[in-house]
Amino acid sequence: MSIDIEGNIKKFKSEIPDDVALVAVSKTKPNEDLLEAYHAGQRIFGENKIQEMTDKWEALPKDIEWHMIGHVQTNKVKYMAPYVSLIHAVDKLKLLKEVNKRAKQNDREIRCLLQLKIAEEDSKFGMSKEDLTHLLLDEGVSKFEHVKIVGLMGMATFTDDEDQIEREFAYLKETFDELKQEHKQLHILSMGMSGDYKLGIKHDSNMIRIGSAIFGERK
Q1: What span, in angstroms and rounded, lies between the C-alpha atoms of 149 and 44?
Q2: Domain count, the chain
Q3: pTM above 0.90, yes or no
Q4: CATH number of the domain encompassing residue 77
Q5: Which class for 30: exposed (0-12), middle (13-18), buried (19 or more C-beta within 10 A)?
Q6: Cα gap 96→99, rounded to integer Å
Q7: Domain boundaries, position 179
Q8: Strand, helix or coil for residue 108
């Protein structure tokens, strides 16, 4: 059965609020699939492997906004620094330093989201609220000229228990609101994927990451 990527994109665009950005998670998908989404009007694509994203960036239209949504290894930052638009999952100061350094070499400013650990699963990355707060107040971070921390992201526990997901999203939203009072530059709250994006939007997410519900299941 062929997947109607164009139809799926249009359905999401018509259903989600205008102020919610749709990141089409295209990891492992071929360029033809991305082009089908592109021709349906999609411009933001999310990848979780830097090499794969770089290959796609080189091959595909240059007005695509590339988001790195996976865990980032510091030694790979240099490969995406020339073009990446937003890095979703920053969870340590060392990574921010490297992003600033590589962005400077490319004469760019790279936007980043800090990842708050909201899930109970050990496999999920992210910072504690305390560590995240300290990072935002770090004097060194405030001097970075080529990195802009623009928001928070989080991934809920992979579970069918909607109450648990709601609690985790509510915690992320509460943290975001609290930090935004001190740090006015925070305006992106990225939470919600194919299985739980409606709950994310309910808790004021303004950026959702949708993969299988657009492109079909991954092999």
Answers
A1: 19
A2: 1
A3: yes
A4: 3.20.20.10
A5: exposed
A6: 5
A7: 5-215
A8: coil
Contact 91, 64 (CB under 8 A): no
Give pLDDT tens digits along the chain (219 positions).
689 999 999 999 999 999 999 999 999 999 999 999 999 999 999 999 999 999 999 999 999 999 999 999 999 999 999 999 999 999 999 999 999 999 999 999 999 999 999 998 776 689 999 999 999 999 899 899 999 999 999 999 999 999 999 999 999 999 999 999 999 999 999 999 999 999 999 999 999 999 999 999 877
* Cβ neighbours for 71, distance < 8 A, ≥ 6 positions apart: 48, 89, 91, 125
**100, 33, 26: which is closest to 68 by C-alpha?**
26
Alpha helices, H only, the chain = 5-15, 31-39, 50-59, 77-80, 93-105, 129-137, 139-142, 162-182, 197-202, 212-215
Q: Locate 84 and state its tokens.
A: 């990446």
